[in-house]
Amino acid sequence: MARGQNEGSVFQRHRKDCRRLTGAKTCTCPWAATVDFGLVGGKRSRPTRYATTKGEATRKLAELQLLKAAGVIPSNATLSQWCDYWLKTLPTSGARKPLKPSTLTYYRMHVEQWIKPTIGRTRLSKVGPEHVRALHDAMSEAGKSPTTIRNAHATLRLALGLALIERRVTVNWAKEVRGPSAADNPHPVLTMEDAGNVFVVASRSARELARAHVAILCGLRQGEALALRWEDVRADALRVEWSAARVKGKRVRQRPKTERSQRVVPLAPAAQASLAAWRRESGGRGYVFHGFDGPESIEDASRDHRAWKALLADARVPIIPVHGARGTCATLLRSRGASERMIADYLGQADVRVLMEHYLHSDDAERRAGALELGSVFAIEE
Hints:
Helices cover 46% and strands 11% of the residues. It has helices spanning 54-69, 79-89, 101-119, 129-141, 146-165, 173-176, 192-202, 206-216, 222-227, 269-282, 301-315, 324-335, 340-347, 364-377, and strands spanning 9-12, 31-34, 38-40, 43-45, 48-51, 237-240, 243-247, 250-254, 263-266, 290-291, 294-298. The longest helix has 20 residues, at 146-165.
């Protein structure tokens, strides 16, 4: 199958003992795909990929064309060039679940902000353990937390994983070199007394109190809380099936990453009361914690976080990220005797560690008992 010079070609390379020489209509000779990459180091580069069928060769041609479009030269690609290629292949990588746009944006941020500036000029084939550690050191010196470093490390590991599959590298050093441990960066949490102080101050506003209860008593992620609509709020439970995210500058509502994140969260009595009060005051339409533009607008995550920090400051408790409220919820549940398995189910936590595997799955009754037990600590007076 001939194509233009810049498009490449697919053809069958017949062997000297090809059956067609004896009159056969078909043969088992290999198919090949090739693309002209132009001059590389003064020599013309025409990488060729072999396949057993014409269809497979056509797919390999598409891969080569993608490599060329990304500026990747198979023989001497830099890590920056490879990351560009990897990012372009992600949406069509054949994964079981389609990649969310927000996840792609997340990977691209790590590549552009850290991987490229730090170790991007390194030849892909020359990437070693020292380069992975150099990425860690550069981010640490810039004041980035172990969590942020660990996330960038994970992105590099995925990019090099494809390079290993396609035999561009012999070792995925981002898999062999250990990233910062989660234990190096424990999430700060509020004490039970701190949480009580927050609720007292938040009671000045129906929205603030409901938002604080959803964060601390329900343990919802920020994106989950901002994606809540009033139809997701029942009298005694929250239906958590969506998450708010920013994609290409626009706030959208999308499915969470894992099925475990989709759950029903029982409401403690205090949370039931505060949400009911906020429903009456707000009109009960659209998003529960809607944005500045009205009930059908998703609240900006930065504005929500600023409001959270202002609330903590007014309550004179340690300023922790809004995501830290999940840790507070887990700690408070644990202090009331909840099992680790129940806490994981309550929070919709998919990444359950080895220790957690020794616990039985909590049922609805156990999760509800945990919510009631936690709610009893912060019972409100009518």
